[in-house]
Amino acid sequence: MISYQTHAHKLPGSTYREVYKHASVVFSKLKRRTKRQPYIRSAYFNKQKVFLNLFWKHLFNKPFKVRTERLKFFMAGVDLIVNSRNIPETKENIKDKNEVFHRFMGLTKEKEQFAVQIKEEKRSGKKYLMSIFPYK
Q1: Angle at Cα 75 formed by Cα 57 and Cα 126, nearest 5°?
Q2: DSSP 8-state code for residue 44
Q3: Which of 83, 3, 6 is nearest to 44 (CA)?
Q4: Concatenated DSSP letters for 55-102?
Q5: How confident is the model over 100-108, as a mean pLDDT?
Q6: Three-class SS of residue 21?
Q7: Considering the entire predicted model, what is its pTM?
Q8: Comparing C-alpha atoms, which of 113, 44, 121 is closest to residue 85?
Q9: Which domain holds residue 67?
Q10: pLDDT tens digits for range 52-81
Q11: How far is the CA of 78 from the CAs of 25, 41, 59, 113, 117, in angstroms?
């Protein structure tokens, strides 16, 4: 699978509090664009909306160390979704046949590899950002 080279760096900080502060600034800029659910438009999905609210719910189920690692890639993950046209790895959800998962691969400016997972509902066609995580 081809990785997309993003133009974004990892978010700075060593503790969860520092990284969360930077990630919340990025998220608040995206959130200000709409009065409803925050979203970004994906180049791969022909500029369809990818909603961001499920990412935060999924993130807060993780321990602090994992949250910190994943939040560092938030800005790079948003850049990947907005600009990448590379074909993702697509799998159907085993538990729910109505869902499909798309996994995009990316590289930060520091050449660190990460993955972005997007959940798509087959019936409605809605897409949700599930997770951003370092890929090793």
Answers
A1: 50
A2: T
A3: 83
A4: HHHHHTTS-HHHHHHHHTTHHHHHHHHHH--PPPEEEE-SS-TTEEEE
A5: 96
A6: helix
A7: 0.90
A8: 44
A9: 4-134
A10: 999 999 999 999 999 999 999 999 999 999
A11: 13, 10, 15, 14, 11
Measured CA angle at 82 (ends 30, 133), to 5 deg: 85
H/E segment holding residue 118 = strand 113-121
Instruction: Look up tokens 């500029």; give the residue.
Output: 47
99-107 and 89-92 strand pairing: antiparallel
Give Cβ neighbours of residue 120 (< 8 Å, ≥ 6 apart).
99, 100, 101, 102, 126, 127, 128
Q: Which amino acid is at 126?
A: K
Domains held by the chain: number = 1
Tokens coding 122: 């087959």
The alpha carbon of residue 76 and the mean position of all alpha carbons in its chain are separated, in whole angstroms, by: 8
Residues in the chain: 136
